[in-house]
Amino acid sequence: MAKTIQAIRGMNDYLPSDTPLWQWVENKVKHRLNSYGYSEIRMPIVESTPLFARAIGEVTDVVEKEMFTFNDRDEESLTLRPEGTAGCVRAGIEHGLLYNQEQRLWYIGPMFRYERPQKGRYRQFHQFGVEVFGIANPLIDAELIIMTAKLWQDLGIADHVQLQLNSIGSLEARKNYRAALVDYLQGHFDILDEDSKRRLTTNPLRILDSKDAKVQEVLNDAPKLHDYLDDDSRQHFETLCSILDQYGIKYEINQKLVRGLDYYNKTVFEWVTSALGAQGTVCGGGRYDGLVEQLGGHATPAVGFAMGLERLVLLIQEVVADLPINPNVDIYIVHQGDNTTLPALQVATQIRDQLPQTKVLLHCSGGNFKKQFKRADKSGAKFAIILGEDEVAQQQVVIKDLLSGAEQVTLPMSEIINYLTPFYQSH
Ligand code: ATP
Ligand code: MG
């Protein structure tokens, strides 16, 4: 036998046993986004490399070490998208969707990051992303967060995720804070781990979410970001918190939450769970009022979030007791003998047409009834519909309930739908 070829490390296949739950999640999310008036946008998976370098920031983890970048045949540098916001803004500018308009957009699709694969962290993973353009009012930040909270209810995980919230202020405020933080940390340089030492010159705010216990201890007495917030950001944050309070959304203000990408300002938030170990962030987002202009468009306020579908699916599998999916078919049609093929095809078509919510499987690989019934049992179908030569001659079928073991019944073909309807009406 020839040598087999395997999938790329960190890039998964999603098998027929996995996809029903994925579809269920995707449908719930799409339905919820639709109910809030969001529209889908689809962007390419590949973009030109400078888009990400400019949008995400040169000294972020993503751009420094996580991108899949390659030259195409014309020596142009391309990158498999590590996230969707940059491409969405690029598309919005390119097609004139953003100037002087409000847009509420969502997308779903694979993202690529060259990370060490582990549970909840892959090199190809999938995100649902949501981006709102043209609204500066904190009410939209609040509504986005409320929408995610609603989603967790839809997915049955509301009791297992917590909201972390912060404001990282304006660029100017962050610059001032950054200087104060660097100043303070330089006085404790020896205690810092290697990563934090390096970040002190490249991206010091990222030191705030260092996992190192000693670094965290030093940070306890460090200057606080909120003491450096500009008035506009402070006001924005107070209004956001007040709306969430009134609406009854619980959150924890975490001044160390800064998020990994450079483009954020003012509001940042994450939904985290303790049920997935180290990969606990299922959704993250925030405001990015400067990005559209930075990428060549007119200044446009913007806010959005992305959720990791693998982590959501893992969490649902972990905490939802009765998974709301049934991968089985409903009806399995067996037939044997001369002149049974066409009637079997017709019966299958008739049921699919008139009871469109049922899954009907027609046995297509021949063999005797014994073999066919084995397949029918294995399919998990409730009903087997049986057509032999005698039945066809008399325009009848036999229906057998495979799950209850009740007596099989013989019906005229014209009665099949009437017989099945009560079982599938509100299915
Ligand atoms: P983390 O801190 O876990 O690396 P991140 O801050 O890099 O996450 P974002 O860029 O905010 O992640 O992406 C939004 C969401 O996408 C994350 O909250 C997570 O659910 C998911 N995600 C990010 N990277 C991965 C990955 N490599 N594999 C699976 N899901 C991921
Ligand atoms: Mg990351």
How does the SSE layout of this entry go?
Layout: H1 19-35, E1 39-40, E2 46-48, H2 49-56, H3 61-66, E3 68-71, E4 77-80, H4 85-94, E5 103-112, E6 124-133, H5 138-155, E7 162-167, H6 171-186, H7 194-202, H8 213-219, H9 231-247, E8 252-253, E9 265-272, E10 281-287, H10 291-294, E11 302-308, H11 309-319, E12 331-335, H12 341-354, E13 360-362, H13 369-379, E14 383-387, H14 389-393, E15 396-401, E16 409-412, H15 416-424
Parallel strand pairs: 1-5, 7-8, 12-13, 12-14
Antiparallel strand pairs: 2-4, 3-4, 5-6, 6-11, 7-9, 9-10, 10-11, 14-15, 15-16
Helix pairs in contact: 1-5, 5-9
The structure holds adenosine-5'-triphosphate (ATP) and magnesium ion.
Structural write-up:
- The protein has 427 residues and is α+β, with helices and mostly antiparallel strands.
- The protein has three domains: 18-169 and 253-319, BirA Bifunctional Protein, domain 2 (2-Layer Sandwich); 171-229, no CATH class; 331-423, Rossmann fold.
- Helix content is 38%, strand content 20%.
- The chain has 15 helices and 16 strands.
- It has helices at residues 19-35, 49-56, 61-66, 85-94, 138-155, 171-186, 194-202, 213-219, 231-247, 291-294, 309-319, 341-354, 369-379, 389-393, 416-424, and strands at 39-40, 46-48, 68-71, 77-80, 103-112, 124-133, 162-167, 252-253, 265-272, 281-287, 302-308, 331-335, 360-362, 383-387, 396-401, 409-412.
- The strands form three sheets. The chain has an eight-stranded mixed sheet. The chain has a five-stranded mixed sheet with strand order 13-12-14-15-16, with helices on both faces.
- The longest helix is centred in the middle third of the chain and has 18 residues, at 138-155.
- The radius of gyration is 28 Å and the shape is elongated.
- The relative contact order is 0.12.
- The mean pLDDT is 95.
- The structure holds adenosine-5'-triphosphate and magnesium ion (MG).
- The site of adenosine-5'-triphosphate (ATP) has 19 residues, from strand 6, strand 10, strand 11 and helix 11.
- Magnesium ion (MG) binds next to loops.
